[in-house]
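Structure ticket #2291
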Amino acid sequence: MPDPRWLTTEQAAQLLGVKASTVYAYVSRGQLTRHHGPDRRSSRFERAEVERLAARARRGGRAGALDVVLDTELTLLDPAGRLYFRGRDATVLASQPFEQVAELLWAGPAERPDPPVWAAEPRMLAVARAVQAALPPGTRPADRFRVAVAALPATDPFRYDQRPAAVAATGRGLIAAAVDCLPPRSAPVDDSVAARLWAGCADRPPTPAQLRAFDAALVLSADHELAVSALAARVAASARADPYLAVLAGLAALGGGLHGGSVGAAEALLTELAAGRTVADLVADRLAAGDQVPGFGHAVYTGTDPRAEAVLRLLGRGPDAALGGRFDELVAAVGRHGGPRPNFDLALGALAVTWNLAPGSAEAVFVLGRCAGLLGHTIEEYRHRFRFRPRAVYVGAAPATDG
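Resolution: structure written out below.
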């Protein structure tokens, strides 16, 4: 399988929007580095370097959007349909506990005599639970997480310690406090983050297969390259915000309807389907309104979303069993005539609806899992000092003059 870190001359030219001869002109000018291919005769180019050059050449990306390209050692996203955490396939890592993968994102591979403890200090948990008590009973878990994270800095006198090991310790406590302050619906079957989150989402204990899929969903939620939430966390960290506030900045961006909020839309769609709405009605209603069907298509993946495939595979025939055979019908209806394929949002929604979890559980998995990645980006950004200084071009009214 081709290494996604490398591009052929033709692939580099396509990404840059130039001819192959221009790629070699960039090499001669010192703007691009040419490497020998495995056969020592062909040329290949490092994808990250080509993407940086492409970003500098742009004058606004999608519909005038701004592209930010940063070096990172955390996550590699291959648009063809692969995702890697520190060079390891995320769908393979999904067989490991969420805590181990989070530690990998924070510090890289490490041998420890004893696994770290994922628990919140009593004062942290007391404050997190106290602020939860002020929220309305129907508050969704993702909103509860944001409120808890906002309150936690006041309990930690050492929150400005920005060494990687200190931030990792903060991260364990932050995630533990967030999940443990959820109003319990059942008792955790063990002390894993997955089991504790399940207890806040379900009124019954999970089967081993359910807990394994829940853990895998947390792992696959952990990071997705430089998503807007990761950038928000990095901007805060660049200004030396403490880790709690950096994560909170990321969670604020994650709550947008074009980011993590889309998970809730996919869950709502499947909830309607489970309640008896027909596939034709659901799809037709959204198409008639000019909307996309939630849970389908992806802005980056040109093929399948590997995270969706992994979670749906762990669910087996679960979605169709719970939805009376209409899940496959929905996928076929949206995908007809070369239409979009299921994405991770739909897979998380299927997980929640198939197991009759509390409303908002799909987003809860996504947000709690993504806290690990936000902390990884925070640790990485602390190596730099205030490197984000965007400038604005003023296009408003001309300044008023006296007289």
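Closing remark: The radius of gyration is 23 Å.
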